[in-house]
From TrEMBL, chains A, B:
Protein source organism: Streptomyces solicathayae
UniProt keyword annotations, A-Z: FAD, Flavoprotein, Oxidoreductase
Top-level taxonomy: Bacteria, Bacillati, Actinomycetota, Actinomycetes, Kitasatosporales
Domain FAD-binding PCMH-type, chain residue ranges per copy: 97-279
Protein name: FAD-binding oxidoreductase
Alphabetical list of PANTHER family matching this protein: ALKYLDIHYDROXYACETONEPHOSPHATE SYNTHASE, PEROXISOMAL
Family in the record: Belongs to the FAD-binding oxidoreductase/transferase type 4 family.
Length: 545, 545
């Protein structure tokens, strides 16, 4: 197996310590320029960390000869599988204190090999961390503690094929290790799309989406990966689970829903039949400006409670709008978009605009069904129609890179998301903002920037997504972030807002999750895990002990 | 507690042995007239069974004095809780051989009483059968076997209140024992509706819908009760589980989805926060006639794969269309309807009609948005627009009563449903028809009527619903039906079609379910049950042993 961290789809080099492609990382000058916006950051960026400086030792175990051809043990590969890509991970790498480096990285090519690796690991007390694109921002793919003799990172990305397409039924059997672009490239010739575009799209896999119940970037209806699942194939230490391809079923609790969100703790998802969609032919989008954030919330609720089902309905608070270039004047901006493969969407956009205007929004419908007219389609299937939309989209994909640039300037900068019912939303957002600023100030002595946007909206609530940035104290960044996160998690708990809407639980959210999860469900989940993973080797520490 | 079997909402008398209200049962003359349509049935109807003839003895246990006020032991109440309302139940009652009569029937009024009853039952080896409206058609609410010292039917219908309404967030906290009309009556003054209308609407409860993953009568999108659940409260022997009210969450596998479809085997659902909808203001419906059933399937698939989301898209095969009066000439009929609380639906109906015509359908759009124009709304919120739609609707609600009338004429008559992907549907329907007719002929010597309709449609498949009717052999009706069901279940299994789309598993579907369910999921479910129900008292025999 090559020791490379090159992206299988693009041949571009992947960063072992930071987000995405190394060639897309901000250079030192850009880091300094970005850092200058945040008072108190460093004068010069922290150096890019080197694997050689980590002093990675020999693995504690060797694989059996029958599996050796699947397994790598060189430091570069192991370092690239040590952690996810959250701020905690990036700053630990920058400070030379990454999480425990796995002893081995295996890249199985089929279910038999996955099962053999699990058997071997179970027999030898080796923890197995299923690994897709490695984009976890919640500590989902690292090992903590020392209860296991060794750690194996199980990288699924060699299983990345679309194995079957049912064009008439608009579904495909897809291997779990396919990264977003890799699977879309295989579907495109058939005129079909999974239409699931999380921010991590390029760097996350189908299996990762399924194991973490990922949310796509569409605002309503079909955006949760859960709803696209027709059937799952999951290799567990107790055998392989394969559900039937069914459009709907009432035969007992859904087997698939038990594995969705199980974060590798119950088994390794190796493939799924996924529901697909035709590529949209009609699109229209625009932005609406509000002077008042709370009135904008009312507008969004009205749109979410209609049956207009916007593809995008993303509300940017003034800070978020400023940061992304969508607005310069302290306005709140609503990015609104509609799509359809069946019929024009102008009427839906116009009706949504009417609802927004009734709550004080200012915005115009674009002249025509733009995307359909000019035939363009961007990488993720959306087509921005105006400058604010376009500015926001570019910023959206660039954000994680900028976060890493700020981290190199010694900033503490991270995002987190939640969801709550509408009655909670206004106070929740206000209190998270206040508590995050207070916690940041207390921990650092600096003023923090706290921005908020709504990423997903529902008839009964919304998902606010927060970004916090503040100058850190050299060497204390992780502790500072943990303090801030603990403070906002308390706010979430007080408002009965979920500890995560679409980033999963991992290890970082465990304290909040343990408080949120009903205790009888914890009993059931623990029992289910003991039945499927009797040697307790699967992703120890996530979800349940 | 009164010993009556009177409906709490209407004060109309409920039948202990047959469907619904006794005053709606066909009289002897109607039974004879209906039976005459089915060659080989009896000349005179079987007499209506009497509780006094069942020889119901004394209960094997007495409740503790602290709970005695909640518990009834008189024969009428116990007989009415002995079984569900499937054909197997009705014919067993008619033949004087009902399932095991429960020793006691308890009607708790709050969670504390439910927990106390479970504690007492656990301590005394008493099986507990949660009971809502008692409309199970799969043996979901009866006790089979003799592993328990006694049987307690836990009737939840005294817990039937809407406890809270969040009008802005369109949600309500509803007790699980509320029958359909009881909860809708409490929501109507607020302009809201749960909009869940299974055929059993009048005789089934919210808790029953949740425990069985019920399907409403709408064809697409929001029709499964699962999707309306914001949070659940479930009393288990190991404690009470209460999930948070969340519009969406990615925090681990969904706790609610484990209890949805658990059929009382993991706990007793006592209340839920449910997502509501505004009452629709715009409606339009029509019917489309096809000369060929298979071309009609293609039309339905095209409509299901659009994003038009019809409220009704019910395809009736020629026999079904004839039986319901929707067509007399051997045509296939598609009942098509649209609803919206936001915007007119005429365009959507017109586009759907275009799709149907492109596949050989003949039909016209109604002149105007009918229901909105005349302001009428029927009991279940739909408003038929033409004669075929109207005929079909009346027949739909009358069908279970007619089934019981036919049962009194010695017929074997029952329905069953399934779901499969589109590629399976045409052959599946043909083979089920053939095998059911063959099995019926072999078992009875008579020609059976086998009709099919599609009740729910999806982009990736559909749910066919079958009705089988054939003259029985006196006294052998149960065995004959079991033979027919086993034959069609084999067809379903061969096509990987689910053993139930929305009728649940109960005890009748266990053999098919056991073959369908992935074995690792069975291990997990068994472990979860052992953790939550350590004395194995909860609805023994459903889902899992």
């Amino acid at each position: 197996m090559p020791a490379t961290a090159t992206d299988p789809g693009t041949a571009r080099p992947r960063s072992w310590w930071g987000w995405g492609y190394t060639d897309a990382h901000p250079d030192d000058a850009e880091c300094v320029a970005t850092g200058s916006l945040l008072p108190g950051t460093l004068a010069r960026p922290l150096p890019i960390p080197q694997v050689a400086d980590l002093g990675i030792g020999r693995p504690a175990v060797a694989p059996p000869s029958s599996l050796a051809h699947l397994v790598a043990a060189d430091p570069e590969v192991r370092a690239a599988h040590a952690m996810g890509k959250g701020y905690r991970d990036v700053i630990r790498a920058l400070r030379g204190r990454p999480g425990r480096i796995p002893d081995l990285v295996a890249r199985p090519t089929d279910d038999r090999e996955v099962a053999d690796l699990l058997d071997w690991a179970g027999d030898h007390g080796v923890a197995v961390i299923p690994f897709g694109g490695g984009s976890s921002v919640v500590g989902g793919v690292e090992y903590r503690g020392d209860a296991h003799r060794a750690v194996l990172s199980l990288d699924l990305t060699s299983m990345d094929r679309v194995l079957e397409i049912d064009k008439g039924g608009r579904a495909a059997r897809i291997q779990a290790g396919a990264l977003g672009p890799v699977l879309e490239d295989q579907l495109r010739p058939h005129g079909l799309t999974l239409r699931h575009f999380p921010q991590s799209f390029e760097f996350s896999t189908l299996g990762g989406w399924l194991a973490t119940r990922a949310g796509g970037h569409y605002a309503t209806v079909h955006t949760h990966i859960d709803d696209f699942v027709q059937s799952l194939r999951v290799v567990t230490p107790a055998g392989t689970s394969e559900s039937w391809r069914l459009p709907g079923s009432g035969a007992g609790p859904s087997p698939d829903r038990m594995f969705l969100g199980s974060e590798g703790a119950l088994g390794v998802i190796t493939e799924a039949w996924m529901r697909l969609q035709e590529r949209p032919r009609h699109k229209a989008s625009t932005s609406v400006v509000f002077a008042d954030f709370h009135r904008a919330l009312d507008a969004v609720r009205a749109i979410a409670q209609s049956d207009l089902n916007p593809a995008n309905c993303r509300l940017l608070d003034p800070g978020e709008a400023l940061l992304s270039g969508a607005s310069q004047d302290g306005s709140t901006v609503l990015v609104l978009g509609f799509e359809s493969a069946t019929a024009p969407v102008d009427d839906r956009l116009a009706t949504a605009l009417d609802l927004a205007r009734a709550h004080g929004g200012r915005g115009e419908a674009p002249a025509a069904d733009r995307a359909a007219a000019d035939g363009t389609a961007s990488a993720d299937g959306t087509a921005p129609a105006d400058a604010a939309v376009s500015a926001w989209r570019s910023a959206f994909l660039r954000m994680p890179y900028l976060r890493d640039g700020l981290a190199r300037m010694g900033a503490v900068v991270e995002t987190f998301e939640t969801a709550a019912t509408w009655d909670r939303i206004p106070a929740l957002i206000d209190e998270v903002r206040t508590e995050a600023m207070y916690a940041a100030l207390k921990a650092t002595g600096h003023q923090a920037t706290v921005n908020c946007r709504l990423t997903h909206v529902y008839p009964d609530g919304a998902a606010p997504y927060f970004t916090v940035a503040v100058a850190g104290r050299p060497g204390d960044e992780v502790a500072i972030w943990d303090d801030i996160k603990a403070a906002v998690t308390d706010v979430l708990h007080r408002h009965r807002a979920t500890v995560t809407h679409h980033h999963a639980v991992g290890r970082d959210h465990r304290p909040g999750y343990d408080r949120q999860r009903p205790e009888p469900f914890a009993l059931a989940l623990r029992a289910a895990k003991a039945a499927l993973d009797p040697h307790h080797i699967l992703n120890p520490g996530v979800l349940i002990d």
